Amino acid sequence: METHVTGQPVLGELRHALSAVFFGNPLFSPQEQLLANHYIHECEDARQLTRWLGDMSAAIAHQHPTSHCSTPAMAGHVV
Q1: Mind listing the pLDDT tens digit for each residue in 30-70?
Q2: In angstroms, rounded to a whole number, what is the distance separating the alpha carbons of residues 29 and 10?
Q3: Is 22 among the domain residues?
């Protein structure tokens, strides 16, 4: 990921990475994907986008349909 002189990731790179997490992911409805897209492109805070990317990536890895049901919310989930 490219960085500015300050060491902050380029907003465009962060936006691209976050968009890749959401779009085409069956865990998110089309409405959720549109809301995420709006937020991603409106946010100008690289730290906030970085934190959101890390949180979403971890949550998706934890909730991935091919993983074992490890949370009560997923207990009744049929793949």
Answers
A1: 999 999 999 999 999 999 999 999 999 898 888 865 544 44
A2: 28
A3: yes
